[in-house]
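User: Just a sanity check before I run the rest of the batch. Below are the structure tokens for the first item. I only need the designed sequence back.
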């Protein structure tokens, strides 16, 4: 058994679903594509700004020779949750933070490799690093690119968390997969925001997943488009034929305490300590409490249920303008004279100009 085979066998033993090897040579084609997307304004504002750093592993390790790409499926059965006010989490947000699980497995892989190569240098990256995870995984043979830019594995679909290990030792590389989406363009058709402008080109700042993580007040149209999405958006993945037949993986990821469909009233009322206990070990924790609570209020508005009026009325007293403004917008989505009376009352003492604008807009629509 070769060194590469032993590494892959060990990875499977510790629960890694997918593993492949590629060289540390620059990703020149990916760099050209990123330049093109940058000129169009399509790149994510949260990604590494230095495009060369994203595509040249030697900028991170001068003597780098190999990259090991790993993938762990986060596809799990979604349990039905009872309750009146519930929000939908994208699959990656339903589980405890995947960064921690991947790093733990990759550290074990590095320890295993150092038994063969005691002097090996290794750098571990999971999503937050500068390298382009999907390009590395693609070149290492883990999957092909869908038209929504997701990395798709024929067995596991695209619900895969990715990471990579940069090494200064040579390992025999694997070959990329030779398959693709063919004529299928269901993801382009399904995107609620038409953010997939063409195959492989996504205007990331128009994706609903982006808006669930963006700070501040959201526009009326975006808020309505969010529907019941509390964090993330899986629309383009849910419709993918590969995901409809995908198998579940090793099951390393554990559901977090909020559950698959969190209770919106609980989210709105989270104290700082409760947020730390329930949310900080999830992928939602990095953005802080306000954005998550704003999303919960938007969903309450989209549900249009008068029973949520007490929750929204309380939120109008919050110290944060974003929460008050979103609560005012949500109230505007619910029919009935009581919502007008509530907003007329708070308008008299609201000082923030942004919140006042929301209230006035809602009242104007209500009076027409």
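Assistant: Here's the designed sequence for the first item:
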């Amino acid at each position: 058994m070769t060194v590469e085979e032993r590494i892959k066998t060990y990875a499977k033993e510790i629960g890694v679903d997918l593993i492949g090897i590629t060289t540390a040579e620059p990703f020149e084609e990916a760099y050209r594509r990123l330049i093109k997307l940058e000129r169009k304004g399509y790149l994510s504002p949260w990604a590494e700004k230095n495009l060369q750093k994203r595509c040249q592993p030697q900028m991170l390790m001068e003597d780098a020779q190999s990259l090991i790409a790993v993938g762990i499926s986060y596809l799990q059965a979604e349990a039905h949750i009872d309750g009146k006010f519930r929000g939908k989490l994208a699959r990656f947000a339903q589980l405890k933070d995947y960064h921690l699980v991947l790093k733990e497995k990759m550290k074990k892989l590095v320890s295993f490799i150092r038994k063969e190569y005691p002097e090996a240098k290794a750098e571990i990256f999971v999503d937050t690093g500068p390298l382009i995870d999907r390009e590395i995984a693609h070149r290492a043979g883990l999957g092909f690119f869908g038209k929504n830019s997701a990395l798709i594995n024929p067995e596991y679909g695209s619900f895969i968390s990715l990471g990579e290990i940069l090494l200064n030792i040579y390992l025999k590389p694997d070959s990329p997969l030779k398959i693709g989406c063919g004529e299928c363009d269901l993801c382009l058709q399904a995107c609620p925001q038409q953010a997939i402008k063409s195959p492989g080109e996504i205007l990331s700042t128009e994706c609903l997943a982006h808006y669930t993580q963006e700070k501040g007040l959201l526009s009326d149209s975006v808020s309505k488009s969010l529907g019941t999405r509390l964090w993330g958006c899986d629309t383009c993945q849910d419709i993918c034929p590969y995901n409809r037949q995908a198998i579940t993986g090793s099951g390393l990821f554990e559901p977090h305490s909020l559950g698959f469909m969190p209770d919106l009233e609980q989210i709105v009322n989270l104290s700082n300590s409760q947020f730390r206990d329930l949310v900080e070990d999830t992928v939602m924790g990095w953005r802080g409490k306000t954005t998550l609570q704003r999303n919960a209020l938007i969903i309450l508005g989209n549900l249009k249920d008068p029973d949520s009026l007490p929750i929204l009325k309380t939120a109008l007293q919050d110290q944060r303008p974003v929460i008050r403004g979103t609560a005012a917008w949500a109230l505007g989505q619910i029919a009935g004279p009581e919502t007008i009376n509530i907003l007329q009352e708070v308008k008299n003492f609201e000082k923030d100009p942004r919140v006042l604008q929301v209230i006035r807009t809602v009242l104007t629509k209500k009076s027409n």
